[in-house]
Amino acid sequence: MSNVARLHEWLTTAATLAPGGTRDHLVTQAQEILLPTPAVHLDTTNEEVRAFLDNHPDLEVVTVIDEDGHPSGLINRFIFAEAYSRPFSREVYGKRSCIAWMDKDPLVMDEGTAIEDLVKAAVSKGPKVLKDGFIGTREGRFVGQGTGFSLLKAMEALEAEKTRQLLESIDYASAIQRSHLRNSDRHLGDALKDYSLHWAPRDVVGGDCYFFRQTPEGLFGAIVDCTGHGVPGAFMTLITLSYLSFLVGAHDGETNPGAVLTQLNRHIKEVLAQGNDVETVFPMDASGRSSDDGMDVAAFLLAPNGRSLLFSGAHLPLIITDVATGESRLVEGERMGIGYVRTPDAFVWASETVALPEDSRVMVPTDGITDQIGGPKRISMGRKRLVEWLNSVCAQSAASIGKEFLTHFEAWQGSQVRRDDATFLLFTPGSTHPVTG
Question: Global pTM?
Answer without folding.
Answer: 0.73
